[in-house]
Design brief:
This protein is of the alpha/beta class and 258 residues long. It is built from 10 helices and 10 strands. A hairpin with a 4-residue loop joins β1 and β2. Residues 4-233 form the ABC transporter domain.
Length: 258
């Protein structure tokens, strides 16, 4: 069984006089350890789809199944980790306190969680700064702390809403490599929303391209094994990268003419 199943999901936004179709008949599956990117023109419903998968929005039609249980079930939300464009660290809390926010909300903090937080700090390259505050860290370090906060709850699925878009290009490249390596280490499944074709290519096993509103699946691109075996930075230099980029760019550019 797949870890995640998105089954014939459609979503409409209603106003007093009319309604807008945001998504139409979206279906795909995601396996354990697999990375899928959702790509498409602005306004095609990418973030809406991510919110539906997270159980934050109930779809107009269709269903989301995570590990054979409906994502609408309250307990199933705890099995997902959501990482946003901004780190949203609390400035009055230390980095370690920010990382332990999930267990604190769930009232599961004990000595093992505190030890886990120290371990996560080390694994994301932030050892020795657990007592620092967010405004003492660079943007890249803050996003690493946000990643540690997401992973400490040991989610089955990571939902990534353009988590690197606010960073400078050099930091973005470094974090792509870091996150890719960490997800492979933990064998985590991830669903990424991005506008960046290059990022989608180097991070993903598959890319799902959505049409403009209403968002429908236009095409699915499967990345070749030789790219998935190397780091995202190395994948950008691989001989096959440009041809894949050109293919995805061509399809996406055609959609933006609608």
């Amino acid at each position: 069984m797949p870890l995640l199943s998105v089954n014939q999901v459609s979503h409409h936004y209603y106003s007093k006089k009319d309604y807008t179709k945001a998504l139409e008949n979206i279906s795909f599956t995601l396996e354990q350890g697999e990375f899928i990117s959702i790509l498409g023109p602005s306004g095609c419903g990418k973030t809406t789809l991510l919110s539906i998968v997270a159980g934050l929005i109930n779809p107009t039609r269709g269903e989301i199944i995570l590990d054979e249980v409906s994502a609408a079930e309250p307990g199933n939300k705890a099995h997902m980790g959501y990482m946003l464009q901004q780190d949203y660290l609390f400035p009055w809390k230390t980095i370690k306190e920010n990382i332990m926010l999930g267990p604190k909300i769930n009232k599961t903090i004990d000595n093992s969680i505190k030890e886990r937080a120290d371990q996560m700090l080390e694994e994301v390259g932030l050892q020795g700064i657990g007592d620092s505050y967010p405004d003492e860290l660079s943007g890249g370090m803050r996003q690493r702390a946000a990643l540690a906060r997401t992973l400490i709850t040991e989610p089955k699925l990571l939902l990534l809403d353009e988590p690197f878009s606010a960073l400078d290009f050099q930091t973005k490249l470094r974090l792509e490599d870091f996150v890719s390596q960490l997800l492979k280490q933990y064998n985590k499944a991830a669903l990424l929303v991005t506008h960046d074709i290059s990022e989608a290519i180097v991070m993903s096993d598959r890319i799902i391209l959505l049409k403009p509103r209403p968002g429908e699946i236009k095409q699915v691109f499967r990345m070749p094994p030789e790219l998935r075996k190397i780091s995202p930075f190395q994948a950008r230099q691989h001989p096959s990268f440009q041809a894949i980029f050109d293919e995805v760019w061509k399809e996406m550019s055609a959609l933006e003419k609608y």
